Each structure stands twice: as C-alpha cells, then as structure tokens.
Amino acid sequence: MNIDINQTFKLFVYFIPLLLVIGIYCIVATRNLIRTLIGIEILAKAITLLVILVGYITNNLALAQEMIITFIVVEVVLMVAAAGVVINIFNKTKSLDVRNIRELKG
Amino acid sequence: MTIDLILLISMTIAMIFAVIRSSLLLSAISLAFGSAILSVLMFRLSSPIAAVFELSVCVGLITVIFVSVIALTRTLSPEEEDQKKKERIRRFWLLPVLVIISAIVLYYVNFGINFQLPDVPQNLSLRNLMWDIRQTDMIGQVIILLTGVFAVAVLYKNGKKKNKE
Q1: CA of B156, closest CA in chain A: separation in Å?
Q2: Using one digit for the tens of pLDDT, what is the confidence trace for A1-13?
Q3: What average pLDDT does this structure show over A46-57?
Q4: Would B80 disulfide with which of A5, B67, B76, B86, CB 3.0-4.6 Å?
C-alpha cells in the first residue's frame, strides 16, 4: 500500500465521523424544521466525502463519481420535496416548531 | 497534506457554525461554505466532475432552496429571536464539546488500511461507465427527477391555492 494513500486515508477518515456526529446532533437537538434539513445535508456531505475517499484509495474514481452524481440528484429532489412540505406545514400551523406537528388525521 | 488538513478543519468548523448559529440564513450560508470546501477537497482527490456537480448543485441550487424557504417562512420578531438565543445556547453548547471528545477518541483509533484492496480495471472512464455500464442509474435519476417535478407541482400548488383564498 502506498504510504501517501495510507496517510491521505487516515487524514480524511478521521474527519468523516466528526461530520456524522455534527449532522446527527443537529437533527436530534433542533426543533426547527429547516435546521433539521440542514442536519440531513451535513450527513450527506459526510457520506459524499467517504465515497470519494474510498474511490480514491481503490483507484476506482469513475464508479465513485458516478455514485456521487446519482446521490446528488437524489439529494436535490429530496431537499426540494422537503422544502415544499416545510412550507405547507408553515402555512397550516404558522410555525416551524416540530412540537406543533402532533395532529395526525386518519 | 497540510492543505488537506486545513480544508478539513475549515469544513468541520463551517458545519459546526451551520448548526449553532441562531440565524437560519447564516446557517444556510455556512452550509454552502462547507459544501464549497468539500468541492475543493473532491478536486484534490482527483474527482473533478463530481466536484463541479457538488459546486453547482449543492452550493448553488440547494442554498437557493434554503434561502427561499427561509424567506417564505419567517416566523419570529427580533425580540422573540433574542429570547430564543438563550434557549439555543442551552441546547447547542454540547456540540463543540462532543466534537472535541470525538476527535480525541478518534485520535487513538488506528485507521490504517491493513487489508488487501481488490484489483480494479483501470480503463473505465466516467462517460463509459455512466452511459454504457450503469445505465440503470441514469434511468433511476430520470425517474427521481420526474418524481421531484411531480412533488413540486403538488406541494407548491397547494400553497398557491391557499394564498388565493
């Protein structure tokens, strides 16, 4: 194993769990719907970095980039749909607090 | 390596700011900054096409989406925001502490590659891979995009109807 690739791997993989911790904490601790979406975005960034790193060390960057492009497309559609849901919830409850969304109908 | 370390630390700090800032707009801008740094890191890891995608879509489009949603859902007056700041400090003071503790724990974990990596065919280009080998992914992306268009048509149409009422 190339020493340079091993050092690069150690450096990058050290920070990916930190990003995951930040994203999960954001989703768990916040009561604001928009900030929950920000937490999901942070998790997505961590996974993107992990996939590209794995593609780099295995010298399979074409597949890694293709997966990242697919993931980014899914992420954008997810954010657009989630934003629409947040706006509709705000129009209904006049609040972005998750504690106000407790009325389930059906 | 030094540049990579600086970029990774900057990205982590930007993400922490995106979480703990009380202003949603500044949080969105901080998230965009972190995504831009991620794009630079992807360039440095020899992934220019994915980096350009990340830069244009995640830094540009998703930031615009966030700013639009924030503008359409403004709820608190400045006095209420000041009051909320104290409550936020109580909930989010733990995050930098948690990140530092995680960093210390991770420092003592051995992340070396101690296994044999598989041999990979070297001749694949991204274009060849996307259009010839993994065509199902492209079909999936088109389906997801159409789903997104449908979601926009349904979700934002309901908002317009209620505004007219």
Answers
A1: 6
A2: 466 777 888 889 8
A3: 93
A4: B76
**Looking at residues B121-143, what average pLDDT do you find?**
81
At B43, list the tokens.
Answer: 């360039």
DSSP string of B66-121, one letter each residue? HHHHHHHT----HHHHHHHHHHHHHHHTHHHHHHHHHHHHHHTS-----SPPPP--
Write out the H or E segment, with its range, that includes residue A88. Answer: helix A61-93
Binary contact (A81, B155; C-beta < 8 A): yes
Q: Give B25→chain A minimum CA distance, Å.
A: 10
Query: What are residue B112's phi and psi, to 5 degrees?
Result: -70, 155
Comparing CA positions, the residue from A16, A65, A73 lying closest to residue B11 is A16
Tokens 């540049």 -> residue: B3
- Which site among A8, A32, A66, A88 would you substitute to test the B interface, given the most B Cβ atoms closer than 10 Å to its Cβ? A66
